Structures
1.
Amino acid sequence: MLAVGLNHYMVLSALVFSLGIFCMVTKRNAIGILIGVELVLNSANINLVAFSRYQTGLGDGHIVAVFVILLAAAEAAIGIAIFMNFYNTLQTIDVDRGDELRG
Amino acid sequence: MNEAVENLAFYVFAALVLFSALGVVISKNIVRSATCLLGTLGGVAALYFVLHANLLAAIQLIVYAGGTLILIVFGVMLTSKSPWVQFGASRGQIAAAALVAVLMAIGLCTLMLSADWSHSSGMLAESPKVATVGKSLLTDYLVPFEAASVLLLVVMIGAAYLARPEK
């Protein structure tokens, strides 16, 4: 079996990133788009931790990754609150219907 | 950890992450997407363990799998008349998006694999102790740490304000 190194993690994170982008542009459900963003942030985190392990040899990447997780949680909380209002206004969660600038 | 075990663990959990991420993308039902996301987040947490990031793996499980995912599931339940309502993009849009995603994956892979990463300053032999990470959070990274706490306060107030019931 091939020894696992930095390259393996980079390929994995590139694939997860692309899947996240695909999820973000194809889902019409607003929550689905949020799930795509979570995939993208996770792929970035995989890279941060892998570089921390194989490249710098320090734990610095871990701390940046903690902040990424924190921002992801904050983004999800605000995003869901906005989608609640969206749903209350339009009675649907389909983002294609949200094309009018009205309160 | 033994190297062979480490390699095997990487392949197992990388497969879990990839297949559940694929499930997230493919499934038309948003509830199923959210469930598949649990597999991805858990797999990433396991990969953190493989990468000697124990504290981060715990945080990933608690904050992501325990908090963010629950929030998403609640969001799904509160924003649909029936959880089985589904609407997808048209076939042409999906084809265009797939083309872009594949090109992006190939581009990113070639870019990162062709880059010169030889300036390594050594490998992390063992996981940094939780105490070390905590100390550097309160010394070297104090400003972002405090900014993060202010951000969380703002998010808490903002989310409660946005999601308040109509008067």
2.
Amino acid sequence: MAMKYFLLILDPRVPSLEIEEFRDGRRASREYARVEREHIDDPAMEIVLVGADSLDTVKMTHSHYFTIAAGPVELARLAAS
Amino acid sequence: MPAGPEVLAASTTLVAFRDEFRVPLRLVVMGLRSAVRTEGAEVIVGERLKRQARIVEKLNRFQRMELSRMQDIAGCRATLPDQDTAYRVLARIRHHRSRVLRVIDYVHDPKPSGYRAIHVIVERNGTPVEIQLRTLRQQQWAMHVEDLDTVHGVQLKSDEGPAAAFDYLRVYAEALAEQDATSILTAATARRVAAARAVAMRELRRGGARWR
């Protein structure tokens, strides 16, 4: 299966999760570095580029990003569980 | 405060250095995927180049750490159905074109937190690449730790938090390991996990903020 790249840009304060998808690894890496640079003064931002065959795999390997992005309701559910 | 020119220049250097890991990582991941497939397991493989921020943190945390000696700039992870499959994939990795530099078996010797996985450092095109082999249950445990950190404002992942939370994580990890080995969860083990969890949750809810 063809590899894809997912750039995850999480702002846990909002919370918001932006996902950019790429087919080309080199382009993905350039964009990864550009976005990191854009937020170089903001340590709260969590930015990572993950290679996987599907977004479902990423949801599994980086579930943390998705839990936080799901917001207070999901966190409350987890806290109560 | 906007980043000064030195910071931006350092970031450019770091990115150029990190980019050299991209192709070796790609090759190692292809080998890993093929090893998993050959073992008949579903291919759940992710890869990443370490974030700039994490690289800098690690350099600061370990004063003697040099960038050129950091072995996890490029990393990939396979999530596998059970422990046997993980060891069989490891055996295949040993016969790959990448030279194995180091195997760290946290299944045999878990971290004090209870963390279990097999870590392998291989060398490809002269660069180190880290491979992590986890069972689904080990992955489930690691995600649970991250969720607890988020929900309770602790840093269990970096060994910061109430002792009761670590007791619980250790007991929970042992229970999952037992299931990975035998596919059975005994009632006694389940009770032990539930009891440790109850204590940990009480501590986390009461004093979470103290560990922030």
3.
Amino acid sequence: MRKLLRFLTVPLLLWGLLANAQTRKVTGKVSSSDNKAVVSATISVKNSKAKTVSNEAGQFTITVPTGAVTIEVSSIGYTSKQVTIGASQTSVDVVLTASQNELSDVVVTALGISKEKKALGYATTTIKSESLVQAASPNFATALYGKAPGVTIGATPGGATSAVNISIRGLSSITGKTQPLIIMNGVPIRDGEASNNNYWADQRIRGNGLLDINPEDIDNISILKGASAAALYGAEAVNGVVLITTKSGAKTGKKGLGVDFSTSASVDQVAYLPQYQNVRGAGAPLNVSNGGQDAAGFVYFTVGGQKMRALPQYSINYGAKFDGQPIMTWDGKVRPYSAQTNNYAGLFQDAHNNNTTIALSNGNENANFRFSLTHSENEGVSVGAKNKKNIANLNTSFKIGKHFSTDIMVNLINQQTHNRPYSVDRLLNNFTGMIGIFDNGQWYKDKVLTSLGYRYRNGSDQSLTPNENIIYSNFRGDIADYMYRVIANTSDENSNRLISSVTNNWQITNHLKFRSRISTDFTNQTTEDKNRSEVPLIFGNSGYFGMSSYQSTINYTDALLTYNNKVGKDLDYNVTGGYTASKETSSSLSRGSDGGLSTENLYDLAASVNTPWSGSNRFSLVKDAFIGTANANYKNYLFAEATVRRDRTSTMNPNNNTFIYPSVNTSFIFTEAMDNIPSWLSYGKLRASWGVVGNYPSPYMANVAYNQSTLGTIYGGQPVLYTQVPTGTFGNDGIRPEQKNEIELGLEARFLNNRFGLEFSYYNAQVKDQILPLTLPSASGAGSILTNIGTLRNQGLELALNGTIIQQNGFKWEATLNLAKNINKVEALAPGLTRLLHADYDGNAAQLVSEVGQPMGDILAHPVLTDANGNMKVGSDGLYLLDADKMVKYGNAMPKLTGGLINGFTYKNFTLDALIDFRYGGSVMPTGINWMTSRGLTKQSLNYMDEAHGGLTYTSGGVTYHDGMLLPGVKADGTKNDIVVSQAYYYWNVYNWGGPQYSSSRYSLYVQENTYIKMREIAIGYNFGTKIASKLGANKLRLSVFGRNLFYLYRTIKDIDSEQTTAGSRWYQNVSNVGTNPSSRTFGVMLRASF
Amino acid sequence: MKHQNIIYKINYMKNFLIMMTLSLMVVVTSCKKTDFADSYADPSKISVSNIEKQYAGFLKANSSYVLPDYWNYFVVLRTTTDRYTQATGYTNVDKMYVPGDAGIGGNWDTYYNLLAQYRELQKIYAASSATDQAAKKIFITSATIYLYDFTQKLVDLHGSIPFSAAGNLSTNGGDYLKSLPKYDDAAAVYTKMLDDLKSIADELSSTSLTAATQTAFTNQDFVNGGNISKWKIYCNSLRLRMLTRVSGASAFTARYTSETAAILSNPSAYPVVSSNTDNIEITVKSVSSNGLNSSGFQSGLEDWNHNIASKTMIDYMKTNTDPRLRILFEPGTAAAGAFTGLDQLAANSVQDALIAGGTISIYNRSTLSRNKFFPGVLINAAEVSFLKAESYLKAGNATAAKAAYEAGVRQSAEFYFNTRSISGDNTAGTPAALTTAEVNTYLAQPAISWDAASTTAAKWTLIAYQKWVHFNVVQSLENWAETRRLKLVSLSFKADPTAQSMPPARWFYPSGESVYNTANYGAVKATDNLTTKLFWDTK
């Protein structure tokens, strides 16, 4: 058929050429359905070479043959349109409608350049505004769960002020930074890392810079995953790039002033707590431990001549079963002895959040703007934690004359954070802070302040209210200390952040344009810490006041010159050259009182008893790069691009700080290039890319230099000035950058009139010269040294399927499935080194290592000692002996498969959006939870407690017990084990702290696979009809209810949330620590209206 | 036409200006080569040092383990040596005799930081001119004395340690494979130190400094204030301590006898600490938080009831009306002035109840934990006197032994009363002043009196107990070494059925050694347990 047509058109063409002697001019205007000029639309005449583009006002003039002709008008983001012009017609107005998949057609790529998606030779994922805000996520990162294949999110528990990690295509650095670069409207913004895993260094849960970006202001997020996509960012892009485009006035699709309003309110509740046993209280059977309790498990106090029972002071909970009878509690109150199911949750609060945004926008062909104001308040589950934010955002662009345009973005974020969530480390990673079953957080809330407002006192401690001292047993000092601190101490952060940029565009000629941009991201923050005076002045000086200030600035600029033209009629090309530079500086200053406050609760440095201490910190980082790109487009179905970046950085030795990062990619739209495409295939594209990106050490890490300080004048006439060679991490002036080489192949297709879509990618990336602080024995002269010693490979597959599954009778079901599989492998470490140690836990009880040939993050522990026949060996106490000389792999921290399933249902005015995210494989070692088993707090620790639970009956010291266990194995003499142990003794010791040198703890049992399927978000909405909306003066009105982090459909670890171990920006900080804050579940309601 | 031309020119100008503005934006922010160099090095650090500055940096490296501080007292000593010597009372808990990795590692890493600074000092010294080397030798010599003091302490805790090849990472230019250190045999380390200190003792007798060096040395030496004769005293006193420590090892017995005799018989050539004015210590000059002081003592000793008195010590002091009792301890708040120590053999719930009840005595807060001026004791008169007493007793010189013993007791009491007097704290109330009469009475007590001790063995025991009381928590590591060596202080411990049942004979190596220094650790792995005795631990 096609051939026949072609055969027929040839004579027609010939005729047309012959008739070419006669032409005429047609003028016209291209506008969008909302009556805006469409600039740079292509107007071509069918069967003719004639072609032109519309000008700034959407107007065009084209020369066409006489007679009726058909013109085709196309523009990025709009559906192409064919219009027939009558023989006598001299003007024509064309209205284009925005294409349905507008965003999937145009994608923001590196340096903020928009490109047609079909031209891209690499994978990107774009997430639109609606899916970021439907569940009112307080930041954009936690709105990304499951929404992009290969992108995984890890949020530190604690609430809206806790740091969130993003990782793209696995992890590209063994010990370095793995967070992507974040670019907003083309300019880099401050993100920063957080580490919340070291309680002793910092007790409050910190956040990172991405939390400040308001999801309500985001139009779309584009994620550059592979090296080729991100190659223009060179050494900053080893972990991928997240490109944020904020909403502008150009896209409102309305005449006149547009007003958008949204408000939401939600509550976070503590969720996914350990499964506590509700059977017995503190103590132990007498044959296991005698702490002075009687056979029933109690100790006694005489109060007012009356003998009262109480629980003995034990951190283990294998004591008396709850009987509901009266008992003396540590706070001196008599209560029924029964399980307090709210024991741990009682230490926290419900967190209330609200968020309101009003946005105004307007635009015409010469200028447009969008201005929004947001106010949000977020509490944390940690008592007293509260964050208030005011965000103002202005996005505007205007034209200066015919050839210039300017875009201006101003984003101002004002924030007050009162009491960042306080780490619960001491309550979970510490035996003496674990709350018992007959204990309650509420009781601590009531007792930690004395009636005079001082800190609680123990025993016979000096006090003005001695009769309030805590004297009864089973009091947990660590819990009281936690509660005291969250109630009595305050920390207030006040910050202002300004992100602004100016972009100028100059169309020099039809083929040549110049763009330059300058931006700044400035943050100023002050913090005041106030700790109450703990004791009256007569007993000593206590309390604390500290103040600090922090400034951070990123100045950025780039300039791009682009030339485009065509060769012949089928090959378009463009060439770009440019320069980019940035300077990042930060400084902080802090001072605090020393030796307590001289006047009770006088919060000022003037109240410091000794000279206040002070500290300061600063850094500066300079980067620049020359960049060049060349693009070619053959007949709109074959695309190719090559890029190169030469960059320099100040974090490397100045004599060797210049590196080059190239990339190439190509895209082939086979459905447009080939004949005989079956009709069910609407669109098909193959792509391939290769690129190199890098990674540098953090500022000042490489340089070796002396620390210097002073001790003041001591014996001589001059102050004692001293230097020390660094013995923490030793630098390395010869360090090279990490280098990632990645190839990527992909297929994109759409079927059945674009109803179903598929995107598939395969990538293979090798990261060489990993920069590692290699741990050394301190006896060598330093704790670690910076080295280039590793090679890492990430290979993977990504698949995204989407489609409209049902669409009939007003009902629509759309679904997206995202899947990513990443295989990580350590290919090489230093010569002679096959294993790199990241962490040694609890005195060689377990280790986190990366081993050559394996994915990084193997979790090792000691196996049970076996004899020559493989029988497990039992010690004289009836517990297994551990093989102290051997460590075996029991898990690996890297997940095997991650993804999300997004379902959207629409029925008439109702919508239901449900997001499921999942992870398969990858292990964690939540030590704190296992120690809870050791303390007899988890359900697991009830096994074998009596005959009903499978316990054996045995006699000890003339008393019969029913909590026996017999471990299969052999004794030291090789005979079958016949030593019955109490289950209390078993759990206490087998899940205890420490390596074989200290204990019988089997850390191999602590390692658990972290597979889950979670209902992450549900939003149910109702769109009011225009009738109701218009009564309020609105043209759109929507009410919805939503929930986040709702429930698990499946999970392998029952005692914690799957993200509970997230405690820092580096992956190895997220394997074992459960002591940041409890996880939470959110419910809320939202109203959105447009006017 | 003209009109058009003007418009063209205006447009041209406008375009030009805009272009200039755009270009300027880039020029303003573009980077120069020097920007990169300027931001490479941390502005708070320096690339070159000198002998004087590095010397002070070396002395500073372990100051938090010399002056009482939180980590050393709370993490290291509280759970280890203070228990093993019963210098403090403590609640019996599981694994109470197993030294924890945090404590072991803290002490170990601090020593090797000190050694790394010493190696850097050697490196800077070696790279300086011959003139400078000649003029500034005192910095190396005195640093060596100080280093050996702590080298001995580390050997006494672990046995063999990395020493001769340790701390060289910077010297080796960052070659970390070359810098993994071998272990040196414990006895060999002692031999090396004794040899070196012997020659240093002679060298110092003939050392004279140029005026410039003396000024710099006085300024930078915050231990002895640039006083060479004090360094000489430190050196010889240290020799006496080291010789005494190894006296029971057969290979050293002869050396002990001859060298202590040589030292003690020639005090002008080999002076030792003979009065409290000679004490070698870091004196606190400023209690501000960045100065060298003992403000971390309070939480180090008071947190978690670390300051609880042991029954053994209180009973020994109370029975013999020890004048130091009121200055070293204070009665519990609910004890009505009575001194009582915690019984280590009691059940732990009983112990907890007693501690909570406030009847148990605690270490005197005004003398010790809240005394921010508490000195960083290195070696003092009482310790040296007891070393002398031991030497004379062993040599059969009973008269000289008695004099030294009694002098030691007097010096000990004087030391603690002096220390109390410089405290800015009065939480424990003002104590009655020390009188010579009460010391005399004390020395006449049947269980204290030298003459009343009928046998040589009994006299040995007297010395051992006096050392134990004198060292208490103040010189905890010396205390444990001497109680292990002499085994004469009678201490009763409750057995721990869950792990090491009694106090250990040594500490483990920190876990990092087996992991990061695997090959060298292999050579000492067999002895890395809690039961292998030190080579000098021969009783």
4.
Amino acid sequence: MTDLSRRKMILTGLAATAGVSGLGVAARLAEKYGLVPPDHGGIYGPGETLTYAAQRLLTRHSLAREFSPSQISKRPFANEISPLSDDFKRLQAGRFADWQLSVDGMVDRPASFSLAQLKSYPSRSHITELACEEGWSYIAEWTGVPLSHVLNLVGIRPQARYVAYFSIDPDWWDSMDMADALHPQTFLAYGMNGEDLAVGNGGPLRMRLPRQLGYKNVKFITRLTVTDNLRGFGKGLGSAAPEAGYAWYAGI
Amino acid sequence: MGSAQAPIGACVPSSASAVPATVPSRHSVFVRVTHWITTLCFFVLLVTGIEILVSHPRFYWGETGNVLTTPLFQLPIPSSRALVPTGYGYVLPDQNGWSRALHFQVAWLAVLTGLVYGICGLFTGHFWKNLLPSKADLSWRELLNTLASHLRFERPTGAEAMSYNLLQRLAYLFVIFVLFPLIIWTGLAMSPAFVSAVPASVTLLGGRQSARTIHFFASLALVLFLLVHVAMVLLAGFGSRTGAMITGRMGTHKERT
């Protein structure tokens, strides 16, 4: 064995050790700074993690593009919804006067809000694009109460890392990290284009986070849970989407 | 075609190559490795891209578009979504979930591979030596000459076979420095989170739906390139050319020139 090849071997060994420990350090740091998505396991885990980590670093405080009123789509497309349950129809018959949003989990004051209460808080609007992962999109003016306002009312505890949100449709629930939950454009939306949010578009109450794709904007919201980990929810992948083969993080 | 270009392997330091000095290497190690990783990535991206496309085989121009608006054009294929009016009486199974996950995962691999290729290409002078046509070659006459010899199905011999001809150089430069960056850019421009951080990435293209449409045409252009590329390899001698991209060497005894 010549000196050259020995040196090569030592260098290769050192590089490999540095690489492996570098990966280890990177994984620890990523976990610490909340850059690992709950669906990081499985064969698509590396891609999901790279995308989520890169976009979270890039977009922590960025704002979704807002449009002028003239750009609002004349015919917003309401995607298919599951058949409405009897519970929903009963609430709908009462013009959603009895619709309740409950908030629990890692909060100081668990509470329940009626639609009227939510509408009594300062309302915000933004004209943003809703883009479906299928490829289509439309622009609408969304009106609602910022999620951060409701979270402030109930008082989230410092260890909170995610907000899970649930639809009246038991098959549809999701969660977001605190960067999205406290983001100024994340709304509990009850209005669209100046009118009450139509049922087809998720009325009476829809989660609206314009930096993520349509399926993250869950319709018919009835409950929020603030938590520090998502393992206890469903199959522990963070939302119903990964259970159906879709990514938890839908910023791309 | 009298240009005396360096053999394509010339940019590799001899110590890094297993090729004896007497047999010139046609492709350096980094070109070969990145070529095949990119090939694999391209096929995966193409198949998953088609699967994603099937969920909405309509294209629009501008910012928005959906089944209630007039498309720029619609592909005459069935869809995996019932609400898309395709004229077919059936709906394809939904493969969008894993297709998207795999598409983005392999896009990462492709971009990182491209990064390695770009750095090595700059570092070794690969772009200047092997891809950029020399001033003497860059003329209409030379272009016509190369085109004519292609049309006569002439196979290059000797020193000529060891370097890329003018048409190859232009095609490779276009793919590497125009189509690849364009397809990455238009892909990122469809990410609502990415464009929130870099709004110009989508506004410069004319909107989200324009980005999607350009992404589609860039992928078509890459498929077209692939077809021509493979046809040329077949004409030039599949065994020797593919072998050269694997081992780096032109199989001298197998070369059918």
